[in-house]
Amino acid sequence: MGEWINFRELRKSLSFEKVLGSYGVEVKKKGPGNRHIGFCPLPTHRGKKKSPSFSAKLDYGVWQCFGCKASGNVLDFAIQMEGKDPDNRQDLREVALKLRGLFGIEAGSKPSSARTAGPPATKPNGAPRKKLPVVVNSPLDFELKDLDREHPYLKGRGFTAETIEHFGLGFCNRGLMKGRVVIPIHNTDGDLVGYAGRLVDDNAIDEKNPKYLFPGPRERNGKLLEFHKSLLAYNAHRLTWPMEDLIVVEGFPACWWLTQWGYTNVVALMGSSCSEEQARLIVSGIVPDGRVWIFADADDGGDKCAASALTQIVPHRFCRWVKLSNGQPTDCTPGDLAQLLWSV
Ligand SMILES: [Zn+2]
Questions:
Q1: Cα 59 to ligand 1 centre (Å)
Q2: 66 CA to centre of ligand 1 in angstroms
Q3: 236-342 is classed in which CATH architecture?
Q4: Distance 55 CA to ligand 1 centre (A)
Q5: In CATH, what is the architecture of 7-102?
Q6: Which H or E run includes 313?
Q7: Which CATH architecture group holds 139-227?
Q8: What global pTM score does this model have?
Q9: Chain segment 69-90, per-residue pLDDT in tens
Q10: Which is it for strands 223-226 and 134-136: parallel, antiparallel or unpaired?
Q11: What angle is formed at CA 137 by the lines to CA 96 and CA 214, rounded to 5 degrees?
Q12: pLDDT by residue (tens digit) across 261-305?
């Protein structure tokens, strides 16, 4: 395992001008504002070489080429100049470390909420990205109102009114989240950044109607707003960091259950894998001799999830996978949990 890299901080610390300079790339200021243009220096550029198709906004650290249609942030630029793949995590790390060394940038600090990130050069399907600036996990400018906190889905599963209130849960009967119990999701600063929706009718779940619905991208004021759950740990903003013990679960209900049973130091990954950002967030929130307990669901997805969290956390903190032979952690009584915690 290498050292942690705070990519967001690194991007902010890098001077795009200096990075361009380090690759011998010259750009000239064009028009008002901070736009600079030049010949596209990318080794992958296949368009005309002798027309200034490369445009860079030095103050924002973003760029695009009208010839080869590549675009991205300052890190994407360096990766492509190195002839590497921006979608390959190892390549990304390598180039990030190189830049950090080259410009004498300190290692990243504890992550706070990830609010902005430069767009990758291409979408996962390889299509050129729309040229709108992308803002990730920006705080919402609205709140869902009139949620039904008494809905049988929640009460029927044994969640108390206190738990429902604590997590702000409620059934929504209009808009995109119609027919779902909505779950407010916050960044570590406590800003509401999105809602997940759990379909209450399990029979209605299909490809078009997923069990959990997360916010999709939306355009607002010339920006593309994106929600990335992999940059967040659900419930993290309610906890007092740093802490000695933290339980990590996959989904929302396990988090509600554990909290209701009095195990309040719990975060959910909101999926069956632990991202690098999530692992970093978890590690940074645990005192050096603290402990991380992974409660994954007792199925293949759970095993994968636990493995992805373990491999990333173990090099930095004491971390144990609390394996459940049958049932899910959500069904445990407090006594079971205490026994599990002591038996691992
Ligand atoms: Zn180009």
A1: 20
A2: 7
A3: 3-Layer(aba) Sandwich (3.40)
A4: 9
A5: Alpha-Beta Complex (3.90)
A6: helix 300-313
A7: Alpha-Beta Complex (3.90)
A8: 0.61
A9: 888 889 889 999 999 887 778 8
A10: parallel
A11: 120
A12: 888 999 999 988 999 999 999 998 999 999 999 988 777 888 889
